[in-house]
């Protein structure tokens, strides 16, 4: 399912993506409950699907009292010099941690990694490793390019929504609606209770200076170039044509209110 490489260029993109997310949600914690939990003495934190590890590294630096752990399906060797314990693991299977181990667990951007039937299993694993009273922080991109005025949405954007990454995710067995339905997925995983949910816009116009449009479009263009070799077949085009479709959509979106939505959910495990 997962089609992105583990190399320096992808880690640079993930670092840029981290900056967009923290700017959009106002920090490492997307809700007051997470901020308060991270302030606890000896707070035990896990970053699931950590990628380059930027989030958990930042937690280790800003909260030196915390005990920081990270896991990912790929081997990550970028934690040298950080107080982070890394283990290679797949959240859709059993994680190598004891029950009720963590005060805070984060998982984000697994829409490209999990098959539709794996989402419930992944959330059950997060629930399992959370302490009673602990919090899960989940973030996912909606993926659809939106506009407040769909009547004037350009043809290239409509084409991209139909044949871009969401179609590839569906064809590969993933859940293209994972971000939209994130709250429903969490609510179906008792005893996790949602305490915060938001769907915030991030501009897809590179000239937008208010909603991080330049950073978002740079990140998005880099992502599509990495995905094109695996995803182009689902649009029945070559990888080169797939990239051209993306660039045409970005050109068309510039100067408009085109945007993507970032879904954020915080849930508490009942004591």
Describe it.
This protein is of the alpha/beta class and 271 residues long. It has a single domain (8-269), classed as Rossmann fold (3-Layer(aba) Sandwich). It has helices at 8-25, 32-38, 54-62, 118-129, 155-163, 165-171, 182-187, 213-231, 239-253, and strands at residues 44-48, 67-72, 84-88, 102-108, 130-141, 192-203, 259-269. The radius of gyration is 18 Å and the shape is globular. The model has no long low-confidence stretch (mean pLDDT 94).
Low-confidence stretches: none
**What is the mean pLDDT?**
94
Shape: globular
Any guess at the CATH architecture? Answer: 3-Layer(aba) Sandwich
Beta fraction: 15-25%
Radius of gyration: 18 Å
Number of strands: 7
Name of the level-1 CATH class: Alpha Beta
Outline of this structure?
This is S-adenosyl-L-methionine-dependent methyltransferase. With 271 residues, the chain is α/β, with parallel strands linked by helices. It has one domain: Vaccinia Virus protein VP39 (Rossmann fold).
Write the layout of secondary structure elements.
Elements: H1 8-25, H2 32-38, E1 44-48, H3 54-62, E2 67-72, E3 84-88, E4 102-108, H4 118-129, E5 130-141, H5 155-163, H6 165-171, H7 182-187, E6 192-203, H8 213-231, H9 239-253, E7 259-269
Parallel strand pairs: 1-2, 1-4, 2-3, 4-5
Antiparallel strand pairs: 5-7, 6-7
Task: List its salient traits.
271 residues; alpha/beta; Rossmann fold; seven-stranded mixed β-sheet; 9 helices; 7 strands; methyltransferase; S-adenosyl-L-methionine-dependent methyltransferase; methyltransferase activity
């Amino acid at each position: 399912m997962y089609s992105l490489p583990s190399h320096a260029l992808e880690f640079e993109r993930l670092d840029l993506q981290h900056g967009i997310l923290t700017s959009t949600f106002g920090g490492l914690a997307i809700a007051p409950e997470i901020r308060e939990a991270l302030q606890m003495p000896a707070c035990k934190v896990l970053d699931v699907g950590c990628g380059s590890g930027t989030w958990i590294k930042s937690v280790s630096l800003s909260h030196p009292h915390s005990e920081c752990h990270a896991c990912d399906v790929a081997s990550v060797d970028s934690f040298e010099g950080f107080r982070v314990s890394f283990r290679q693991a797949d959240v859709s299977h059993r994680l190598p941690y004891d029950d009720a181990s963590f005060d805070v667990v984060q998982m984000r951007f697994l829409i490209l990694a999990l098959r539709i039937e794996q989402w419930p299993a992944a959330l059950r694993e997060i629930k399992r490793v959370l302490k009673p009273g602990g919090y899960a922080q989940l973030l996912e991109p909606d993926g659809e390019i939106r506009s407040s005025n769909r009547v004037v949405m350009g043809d290239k954007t409509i084409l991209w929504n139909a044949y871009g990454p969401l179609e590839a995710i569906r064809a590969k067995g993933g859940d293209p609606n994972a971000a939209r339905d994130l709250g429903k997925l969490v609510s179906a995983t008792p005893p996790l209770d949602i305490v915060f949910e938001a769907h915030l816009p991030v501009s897809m116009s590179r000239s937008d200076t208010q909603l991080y449009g330049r950073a978002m479009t740079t990140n998005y263009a880099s992502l599509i170039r990495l995905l094109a070799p695996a995803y182009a077949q689902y649009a029945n085009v070559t990888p080169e044509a797939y990239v051209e479709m993306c660039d045409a959509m970005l050109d068309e979106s510039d100067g408009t209110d085109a945007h993507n939505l970032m879904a954020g959910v915080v849930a508490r495990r009942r004591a």
